[in-house]
Write a structure and sequence with these properties.
Blueprint: H1 2-23
């Protein structure tokens, strides 16, 4: 379960970076 949350957090950060790059 802990690994799931770590992966989810990492995925969220990765998506935010991609969206930030696209928006910028």
């Amino acid at each position: 379960v802990f690994g799931f949350y770590v992966g989810l957090t990492f995925y969220s950060i990765l998506v935010s970076k991609l969206l930030n790059t696209e928006g910028n």
